[in-house]
Design a protein that fits this description.
Shape: elongated
Strand order of the largest sheet: 1-2-3
Distance between the termini: 29 Å
Order of helices and strands: EEEHHH
Oligomer: single chain
Largest sheet: 3 strands, antiparallel
Radius of gyration: 16 Å
Helix content: 55-70%
Structural class: alpha+beta
Number of strands: 3
């Protein structure tokens, strides 16, 4: 089970730095800060979780992909809410929203 005790920053779409708490069965929890957009950090965390909880790296890697997708969606929804309140997104966030919408339409 993943938890993000410190929350997630909405701004700064170039990274997704989070403090992650990972729990599995009766094993001691893992707490670590990781940038989900950094392959080296993410791969190291996947390996650490897989070893600690005796899981395959493929299984943990898929969970990280899903986690990243959910958090990206959440950030974009929060940006939409800011826009609805009349707050202007930055150029970077506007570009990210347009890219997300473009990818969504291509599916």
């Amino acid at each position: 089970m993943f938890a993000i005790p410190g929350g997630i920053r909405i701004e700064g779409l170039h990274s997704m730095r989070i403090t992650l708490k990972v729990e599995f069965k009766s094993y001691p929890a893992i707490r670590h800060t990781v940038d989900l957009y950094n392959d080296n950090q993410t791969n190291a965390m996947i390996k650490k979780i897989a070893e600690r909880f005796m899981l395959s790296t493929t299984y943990v890697g898929k969970a990280f992909i899903e986690l990243t997708d959910v958090l990206e969606q959440y950030r974009l929804e929060q940006l939409d809410k800011q826009n609805a309140k009349g707050l202007q997104p930055t150029k970077l966030s506007r570009e990210a929203i347009e890219l997300f919408q473009w990818k969504s339409h291509k599916r």
